[in-house]
Specification:
12 helices; FAD/NAD(P)-binding domain; globular; Enolase-like, domain 1; 25% strand; alpha/beta; 5-stranded antiparallel sheet; 470 residues
Length: 470
Amino acid sequence: MMSWTGGQDFDLVVIGTGSAGMAAAIRGAELGRRVGIVERGTVGGTCVNVGCIPSKNLLAVAEAQHSARMGFPGLQGCAPSLDWAEVRARKERVAESLRQARYLDVLDSYPEITLLRGCARLADRGAVEVDGGTHRAGKVVIATGTSPWVPPVSGMEDARVLTSTTAMEMETLPTSMIVLGGSSVGVELGQVFRRLDVRVTIIELLPRILAGEDAAAADELRRRLEDEGIEIVTGAQVTGVRNRAGVVSVHTHTAAGELVFEAERLLAATGRRAVTAELALDAAGVETDGRGFIRVDDGMRSSNPDIYAAGDVAGLPGFVYVAAAAGRVAAENAVGRGGRTLDLRVVPRVTFTSPQVASVGVTPAEARERGAEIDVSRVGLEDVPRAIVEHRTEGWVQVVADRKSGEIIGVQAVGPNAGELLGEAALAVRMRLTIDDVVDTLHPYLTWVEGFKLAVQALRVDVSKLSCCA
C-alpha cells in the first residue's frame, strides 16, 4: 500500500476504510485494478474503533466483574476492584492492535492499493477530490458508514448527551445514567454500565425493547435485565430534557401519565444517520432517502451508474459482515465481471447482552403473517448438557420449521453463547436443510450448539425423554 496526497488515476476509488470499504478495495486489488482508498480520520471505520470491538471488550469486562460477584456453586463470590482508567486503556489497546493487524497491515500487503488521507468530495467527470489533489476514478464506491444520531428533543443540546461512541470514552463513571433507546446498542451498553455499578434506566418509545426480535426473546431479556437492577420503561415518548446542577431530567409521556426520570448522565442510543454531508452527492446525481442513506439496487449501484455504495451508508442492515459482503459485490460490479447481487435473505443477528439474544430467518409470528403452515419447538437450556454442567440453564432455543417440507426456516435463542448457534442455524436456513438433515448430522457432545440439534429434534420427540446424545 502506498500513501499519497497528489493527484492520480485509479480504476476504483473507495471512500471509507471500514469493513465495506476494505472489502471493496481488496476485491478491486484481487481483480488487478489500481485502487485508491480514502480515509479522513482513523483507518478502520466504526467497528474496530468505536463500535463492535470496544463495546464487546467492555461487555467482557462487565461480565467478568458480574461473574466474580455471583460466584459458582462451591466457589465464594467476591467484590473485585474496578480500575476504570485501565479498562479504558486496555480497550484502546485491543482496538489499536486489531486496527494495525486487520486494516493497516492488510492494506500494506496490496501494492495495488493507495491510501489517500483527507476528506473526499465527488467532482466532475468521474473525479474525486481529496485534500491536496484531484484523482481520476473509473468507478467509485462510497463506504462512509454512519454516525450516532441524537433526536431533536427540546433541551437535548444542553444535556451533555453521550452517544455510543462517547459513552465508552468517559474519564470517570457516573453514579447514574438514563439510556434512550432499547435497541441492541442501548441494552448492551445499559448492562455494561449497570454491572460497573452505575444505576441505569432504559427508556424505549416502542412497546418493548429489541422490537425487531421475537417477542418471547425480548421479554426474556427484559426480565433478566430487570433482575440485575436495570429499570426499563417502554411505550414512553420523550417530550423534553433539562440539565440543572449536574442532574439531567428526562420528561416523558406514557400510558401511566407524565413521568420524569433523573440521572447524572444521558446516553442516546436512538439510531444512526448516514455520513454523506461532505460528499456533494446532489451534484454527482446520487439519490438519497429522507435520512441521507444512499439509494442502491441489489448490485450496490446508485442512481449514478459510475458510483456505488456499500455498507451502512446504503441503509443496509447494520452488521459488519453485511457491510463486507456489500463491499465485495460493489467492487465486482464496478470493476469486475458484473452481475453480482447482495443476498440478504438470511441475515443472522446477535445482541451481546447476558444472556445473548440471537436470531436468523423468520420468527413464528413472521411466518404466520406470511400464511405459512409451521411447527415450532422450544427447548429450555435445562435440557442442554453443556448448560447443566456450567449451571447456566436460564434461556432457550427455538426452531421454526415448514410443516409440509420439514425445512428449517427460523431459529431464535436466548442464553449464554446463543450467538454461537447461528453459524449452523444460518447455514441450515440458507441451504434449506430439513429436520432430518440436522438430526442425522453428528454434533459433538457437551457443546452449546447441541442445543440447536435438540430444538430441532423437539419438533418430533420429547427431548426430556432422550438419553445423553440420543
